[in-house]
Amino acid sequence: MPKVAVLGKDGKTGQAVIARLAGREDYQYTPELANADLLVVSPGIPPGEYPAVKIPIVSEIELAYRLNPSPVIAVTGTNGKTTTTTLISLLLDVPAVGNIGVPYISVEKTYPYLAVEVSSYMLENIRDFRPYIAVLLNLTEDHLTRHGDMAGYAAAKKRILLNQTAEDYVVYNAGDPWITEIVRDAKARKIPFQTESKLQQDYAAARAVAKICGKTDEHIAKIFAGFTGVEHRMEKVGIYNGVRVVNDSKGTNVDSTVVALESEPRNNHIILIAGGRDKLTPLAPLAEAMRGRVKKLILLGEAQERFARELPGFAQVLVKDYDEAVRQSLSGAVSGDLILLSPACASWDMFKNFEERGNYFKELVKKYVSPAR
Length: 373
Hints:
Order of helices and strands: EHEEEHEHEEHEHHEHEHHEEHEHEHEHEH
Shape: globular
Number of strands: 16
Helix content: 25-40%
Strand content: 15-25%
Distance between the termini: 63 Å
Oligomer: single chain
Structural class: alpha/beta
Number of helices: 14
CATH architecture of the largest domain: 3-Layer(aba) Sandwich
Strand order of the largest sheet: 6-7-5-8-9-10
């Protein structure tokens, strides 16, 4: 019986691995690394912090794949993973797991499929993981402090195709040059999609998956019509005296915030709250998307000073925390304005994750808007 140690055992993923192995006869958890035959690493721990061991090092999704025979539909990309995974889950009536928040390894039942959101961090340490359908949405600058450069980032994403065969499928964005290069020599059957708007990519990818799995156009249209979106991604918080408030805490990189901004017309009506753990990606695309749309830019977090320096020409307010950010945004808003939290940064300088950040933002909005607003 192989003994499994866990690096990052206090986190959600590590705890899920330990719980899943309890009482099993094929794998056994051990708290002693010296006694282990296999090391499962949490995705948040970078390779530079791995211990020097001779035993195999694998990700949680690798061990989960070995323990659950359900065919996998794996979704990856820089942006849109959660929405696409959620749509596939609804279209096929199967669980959505993985980077979406529910550890893949926690699923014990067998399903017709599992919709699994996978990040580049998770893919770094796969060995046998083989999705029946791999979905590649897009690739823009993100996680470069981990992967070094875009080539390293693309190489990590490409690992989703590592074990696929001619019996499998890869659904991919034919309008993204990085993605088309990644799938160029894929062994799986290629199903391309292409959209005019980045906002449509999630639906196009989910539709392609549903068609592979035998769903009708009528079924797909019904599910799409009833879909209201995912929490923290362009989530409508409320309308107060004509001022819309939107929580886009899942906008953890520049491209994601650009997509959020481009969903609005250029009429100088957005109060944008941005900043957090800086990913050091160029801000020129963000500046262009802000032009003609953003009337006030509220900045906070570790990225505050760089954002202020590289986004000149916008009315800027630098604040110390979210309490001040929300009060400043509400005090300067008039009917027709949009208060948009879309940080273009990770949350880890102030919060455990983007969910905690988004929830705190919503609590503050409801705290400071009066009943008459």
